[in-house]
Amino acid sequence: MSKNIRTSAVDHLFEAILSLKDSEECYIFFEDICTVNELLSLSQRFEVARMLRQHKTYLEIAEKTGASTATISRVNRSLNYGNDGYDMVFTRIPEFNDDMK
């Protein structure tokens, strides 16, 4: 059973994120809404996913990102059995497409 994240509060959050115009606005907003550790954890998971798509080993990923093997495994499970959200974003960002080759 998956948790229902589709709520009006989440809708409002996503609308706020979609209203941001550039990276600087993202920094301003996310520094207010997240703790430093929350933001670093999110960015770490994203980097882990990118490296997994580059076929890096768990050891290489752990050394480069500092992520635990449990975190790497969770991200890997999302990549393989999730909603394809990571891949959706990777295909839209040219530099990530180059990284995947």
**Treating each run of at least 4 consecutive H or I residues as one helix, how many helices?**
7
Main CATH class of the largest domain: Mainly Alpha
| Proportion of residues in extended strands | under 5%
Average pLDDT confidence is: 93
Secondary-structure element string: HHHHHHH
Please state the second-level CATH architecture of the largest domain: Orthogonal Bundle
Q: In whole angstroms, how far apart are the ends?
A: 36 Å
Give the C-alpha Rg.
15 Å
Question: How does the overall form come out from the CA principal axes?
Answer: globular
Q: Structurally, how many domains make up the residues? A: 2
| Topology, number of strands | 0
Q: The biggest beta sheet, please? A: none
Protein name: TrpR YerC/YecD
GO molecular function: DNA-binding transcription factor activity; sequence-specific DNA binding
Pfam families: Trp_repressor
Summarize the helices and strands and which ones pair or pack.
Elements: H1 8-18, H2 23-33, H3 36-53, H4 58-65, H5 69-81, H6 85-92, H7 94-99
Q: How do you describe this structure in short?
A:
The chain has 101 residues and is an all-alpha fold. It has helices spanning 8-18, 23-33, 36-53, 58-65, 69-81, 85-92, 94-99.
Describe the structure.
The chain has 101 residues and is mainly α. The protein folds into two domains: 1-33, no CATH class; 36-99, Orthogonal Bundle (Trp Operon Repressor, Chain A). It is 74% helix and 0% strand. It contains seven helices and no strands. The chain is globular and about 35 Å long. The model has no long low-confidence stretch (mean pLDDT 93).
